Each structure stands twice: as C-alpha cells, then as structure tokens.
Amino acid sequence: MGQIRQPSPVLLITAVFSSLDTAFTWVRKRAEEYFGTIILESEAFPFETFTDYYAPTMGQILPKRLWAFQNLIDPSELPKIKRLTNDWESEFQTMLKHQTIERPLNLDPGYLDLGKLILASTKDHAHRIYLADGIFAETTLLFVQKKWKALPWSYPDYQSEGYQIFLSRCRDYLKSIRDTKIHEIKTSSK
Fold first, then answer.
1. Taking residues 91-111, what's their average pLDDT?
2. Which alpha helices (DSSP H) does the chain contain, by range?
3. Does residue 151 form part of some domain?
4. What are the pLDDT digits (tens) for 19-75?
5. What is the spatial distance between Cα 45 and Cα 104, in angstroms, rounded to a whole number?
6. Does 3 fall in a domain?
7. pLDDT of residue 105
C-alpha cells in the first residue's frame, strides 16, 4: 500500500486576456491582493493569431498575458481560485455594462509543478477531471525530457514557443524555491 502524502506546493499561473488595457491594470491589483506579487509576467501574446473563438464576445484584438505569483499554493485551492477569478470577470463586466464588449475580461487560472501544467475550467470534457464546486481540471502540458509536451487537447497557444519559454522560466523559479527549501532543511538538521 502506498503512503499517503500531502502534495508539494505549486506555482499559481493565471492567463489574462482582454481587448481593454484597463482590464489588465484592474485585475492585476485584485490578483496581487489575493495571491501575492506577480513574480513573472509574459510578454503580451496576440491571442487572436491562435483562434477567433472569442472575437464575437471579446473583440478582434486580444492580447494575452501569463502571470506567475510569488506565493506558492496548495493544488487543492484551484477550484476556489477559479471561482474567484470568475467573480472578478463578472465584477469587471458589471463595471463596464455601458460598453459594447460582451465579455471584457477572461481569466484562466491553473498551476505548474515540475512535471505538468494544469488548467481549471467550468466545462467538463472527456479529458477533464472534476475537482469540486463545479470546477474541472486538465493536464494541459507535460514536462518530459527537458521540454514541454503537448497533449491531443492542448490549446494551440500553449503549444507555441513563446508560451513554453515563459513556462520554462516559471518552472525554473519553482525549482529554485524547492531546492532552496530542501537546502535549508538539510542545513538546519546538521
């Protein structure tokens, strides 16, 4: 019988996209209040080059940024975080109800550990696992043989070089934190 253990803390990642610059500023403030400082931030990727799925509700030009937060989380917090980010989307939409954009902000939280990237979703599908409170999760990418590997359902943007370079930086950050903690534990036990 395997021994039951608590999972190691993971790095919270949130994808943010909007056609409005004000959305990034507004949600950044909220996110840092709840999750701590954004320690790594990607360039603005042109999401519309990967799909036009959101164009009718969000607009034609959709810059997308990925944020990684300094404070690590317990992976079991993902459903709570996804519900919170959904609330922020609704709150921002209500603030801008006079605008013509139906969905002015999209937030996709997930987490990264050393072997995978997990994204949360409100939608079920064959490859998704139910977590709690109406939230599902999927393994979007695997880290295998020192590189990110897409799965049949991986979104095209996450398969791109720019995303994977950023996610590798995030993985390096997480690894450095874990290595530091292991070193501190070993040093304190001497």
1. 90
2. 21-35, 55-58, 78-95, 161-188
3. yes
4. 999 999 999 999 999 999 999 999 999 998 888 888 899 988 999 999 999 999 999
5. 17
6. no
7. 96
Q: Cα separation of 159 and 155, whole Å?
A: 7
With 0-12 / 13-18 / 19 or more C-beta atoms within 10 angstroms meaning exposed / middle / buried, residue 41 is: middle
Q: Catalogue the long-range contacts made by 99-103 (C-beta closer than 8 Å, 24 or more residues apart).
A: 101/19, 101/20, 101/57, 101/58, 101/59, 102/56, 102/57, 102/58, 103/54, 103/57, 103/58
pLDDT of residue 48: 87
Residue 30 in any domain: the answer is yes
Domain that holds residue 33: 11-188
Alpha-carbon distance 147 to 112, whole Å? 14
Burial class (CB within 10 angstroms; exposed 0-12, middle 13-18, buried 19+) of 6: exposed
Please choose, from the candidates 169, 173, 168, the residue with its C-alpha nearest in 3D space to the C-alpha of residue 141: 168
For residue 152, give both structure tokens: 């049949």
If one counts the domains in the chain, the total is 1
State the pLDDT at residue 178: 82
Does a structural domain hold residue 71? yes
Return d(Cα 184, Cα 43) in angstroms, integer. Answer: 33
Residue 20 CB neighbours (<10 A): 17
